[in-house]
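User: Can you recover a sequence for this backbone? Please restate the input before giving your answer.

Assistant: Of course. Working from this structure:
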């Protein structure tokens, strides 16, 4: 296996970033610094380190759906805050894919599959994400159409979205991008404020009836569909 592919599969970084690590002398194989991009390693025999820290490909790949409650931070470490990893009681270390704001709830995927993590986390990957949104006052049809058509934000205009009204103050929106706090900022642009924001779907994986703070392993079919992107 090529060294940069090994680093990606181990969840260290993307392949491209792995190439940068290698050429900058941060990666060693069997205690020898390697700077050649064509270098191959045997995951079962060779010892690979990055900045002196050993890395290895997880033996069992894990894919989890979590219903994130409010007040939990989507992070592996955040002193003084409750983090989502505290909710997943397994011995293996997994990592959240993407983010949900501290005040937001709903579906969060976690995995120790480095390839999938980097693919899904990359801004260019346009998988659908569906949200159930409640605002603090009634929202008009015209305002919903503005959300669907795209709005200018500081880093550029949002892509067109699919929006469906649920009630006077509630709607569902499907995005294919993930700008920072995007929905809250879009809602403010049309003169409203988010009261509740819950993600209910990522790609073909649905939150369903998973209770807040609980998690489950993805089904075989869910994993199969998700892994197609690789």
């Amino acid at each position: 296996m090529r060294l940069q592919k090994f680093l990606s599969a181990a969840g260290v970084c993307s392949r491209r970033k792995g190439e940068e690590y290698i050429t900058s002398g941060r990666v060693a194989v069997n205690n020898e610094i390697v700077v050649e991009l064509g270098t191959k390693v045997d995951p079962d025999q060779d010892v690979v380190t990055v900045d002196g820290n050993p890395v290895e490909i997880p033996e069992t790949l894990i894919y989890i759906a979590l219903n994130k409650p409010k007040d939990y931070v989507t992070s592996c470490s955040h002193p003084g805050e409750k983090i989502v990893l505290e909710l997943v009681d397994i011995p293996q270390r997994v990592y959240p894919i993407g983010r949900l704001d501290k005040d937001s709830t709903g579906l969060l995927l976690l995995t120790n599959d480095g390839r999938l993590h980097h693919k899904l986390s990359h801004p260019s990957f346009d998988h659908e994400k569906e949200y159930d949104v409640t605002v603090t006052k009634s929202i008009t049809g015209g305002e919903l159409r503005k959300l669907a058509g795209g709005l200018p934000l500081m880093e550029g205009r949002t892509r067109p979205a699919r929006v469906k009204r649920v009630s006077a103050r509630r709607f569902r929106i499907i995005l294919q991008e993930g700008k920072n706090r995007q929905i809250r900022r879009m809602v403010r642009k049309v003169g409203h404020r988010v009261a509740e924001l819950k993600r209910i779907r990522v790609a073909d994986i649905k939150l369903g009836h998973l209770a807040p703070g609980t998690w489950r392993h993805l089904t075989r079919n869910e994993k199969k569909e998700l892994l197609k992107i690789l």
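That completes the design. Residues 63-124+205-227 form a domain with the Alpha-Beta Plaits fold (CATH 3.30.70.580).
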